[in-house]
Amino acid sequence: MRAFETVLARYGKIVELRETTEGAGLVTAAFLQAIRGKDDRAVIPTSMGNLREETFLYLGDPNCALNHLEEGGVLCDGILYEVLSARLVCMGNRPSHWRAILKVKEGTE
Amino acid sequence: MIQLTLLRQALLDHLAAAGIRVLAAWPKEDRVRYESPLVVVDLRTLTTEEAGFQHYLGERFSQENQRWEERYGQKIAVCFALDLYSPRKIAEDGLQRLMDQIADALAQEGPAGLHVREVSWGKTSYDRSCDMLTRAGEVLCEGLLCAVRDEEGSFLSFEVRGGLTLELHHES
Asked: What is this structure's pTM?
């Protein structure tokens, strides 16, 4: 087992990759952490309600793709995140991990 | 302090009663993704103008209270901001339908008995943050704000002629 997968298996969080908002998805492990910037105001008031602008960095299993979750997202600790961008990171010619930027998915009416 | 937010609520109720999806502007809840067109309502301006001599409108016998009450009043002009939103997949049709519905709802009378003097719309644009088409509008209403004073000289309430009563709160 490669180093990243070893660390992921030990310290990663359980996440569920969902192709749709309903139904079960693929359960795997990943690192998920809020991205801190100069402006830490994560909640922006708008005329239609508060908008959550906070983004999260996702690092996960290279065998569990994130580039087909437009209709669903990543479920972690009961919160559904939408995938803003995702790419497979390779070390040399070998896939190392999936790197993605997530944000909390807006609820629907 | 007069509860002016009741004016906005009156318009919200008026439009909702006509089957229009409405939302009071700047709610404290999280924003949700809307699948159907809606109107975001806010109170933009309220201007007053003198009515009668020294605002005095005369006396009226209150059947309810069985006493004479003095009435004072001001003409008011209320400008409401109506921001229309329509999901991109419905596009301009959603905005047009909303405008038709609002025109119908305000054709007979305005909220709280106010007289609708003008309805205007801006140009359509795209709001990337919510992925919806939007068009800003304004509704200008006119009415009479009456203060009722009893024989002891205390102001009891403010009424918008035609319906809405604005409760008067004295700050201690």
From this structure: 0.73
Give, for all 109 residues of chain A, the pLDDT tens digit. 577 888 988 999 999 999 987 878 899 999 999 987 666 667 889 999 998 888 999 999 999 999 888 889 999 999 999 999 999 999 888 899 999 999 988 877 6
CATH of the domain at B39: 3.30.2000
The answer as to whether B172 is a domain residue is: no
Do the chains contact at B35 and A49, CB–CB below 8 Å? no
Domain hosting B133: range is 4-167
Cβ contact A50–B29 (<8 Å): yes
* B142 within domain boundaries: yes
Q: Would you say A58 and A101 are in contact if contact means Cβ atoms under 8 Å apart?
A: yes
Residues of A in contact with B32 (CB under 8 A): 49, 106-109
Alpha-carbon distance A24 to A58, whole Å?
A: 20
Inter-chain touch A109–B36, beta carbons under 8 Å:
yes
Q: How far apart are CA B82 and CA A66, in angstroms?
A: 40
Q: Which chain B residue's Cα is nearest to A51?
A: B31
* Complex-level ipTM: 0.71
- Please indicate, yes or no, if residue B19 is contained in any of the structural domains: yes
